[in-house]
Amino acid sequence: MRRDHWKRYNDRLDPQRDFVEIYAKVVGHEFPWDMNQALGFALFRTYAVPGIGGLLDRTGEFTARTQKRYDDTALLLEPPTRLGFEDPDAKAAIRRINAMHRAYDIPNHELRYVLSTFVVVPKRWLDDYGKRPLTPNEVEASVQYYRVLGRHMGIKDIPETYAGFEQLMDSYEAEHFAYDAGGRRVADATLALMVGFQPRIARPVMGVFSRSLMDPPLRAAFGYRTPPRPVVAVSRGALRARGLLLRAFPARREPKLVEDLPQIRSYPDGYDIEKLGTWPVPGRAGCPVRHEPGAAPTEQVSG
Prior knowledge:
Blueprint: H1 5-11, H2 19-30, H3 32-46, H4 50-59, H5 66-83, H6 88-102, H7 108-129, H8 136-152, H9 162-176, H10 181-196, H11 203-212, H12 216-222, H13 229-246
């Protein structure tokens, strides 16, 4: 297959009508590794918002059961991409996500922010490190895909354009990024998991490599030290070189599915979508967070 096969394929489609198909080709065929990294990094950014990172720490899901939470998140987000929003498995996955969210009193502004990261961070990642940037058709398909996903999740006032999503994400982070001890613990646990995915010989440098990919406001929100400039340059240069190298490879014929990734380790014998994710703690009015006696329920969280 020609190296630009999926680019030409996507540009022949209508992003207003064929957005699921276009987005599926971006995720599964054209940029499977990059999109996995970028979407994971998008979620990672949300921990720098104290209302999100702090509560995720108190649930224990991202610190005590980091691998399972990583796996469940990836497996629940994939079915609509791969199968479309009307497929029974996709509907089941969205129901499971919504059931988890309903266990908390989640502000709409946090949900809108998290949704914006799924649109903006992958585009920026591919601009910087991909074998090519997304085409306008692919960007528009991503916008439409996440607008539909957001409506299925009951999110209000969703931006209509990429520029709207970008403005939302940047302004929200400028206002809300701040240090929180719980958010830092969630970030540390997530980075430790990511390091564990790498070959043993690479693990000693993966922490500083990961921090080198973070922008200064994100590092500051977590209280992470800024790596030396040469380390930042080498880390980012290595990813750019990878992108340039991939331009010489033919297009992928078969999609790379989340369940095929070696990082997904919690379900070696398969899984049931209806059983993924978190569940309410018995006797606590449906809220999974274990509150101290007399403490009011916390109101903020993201998926």
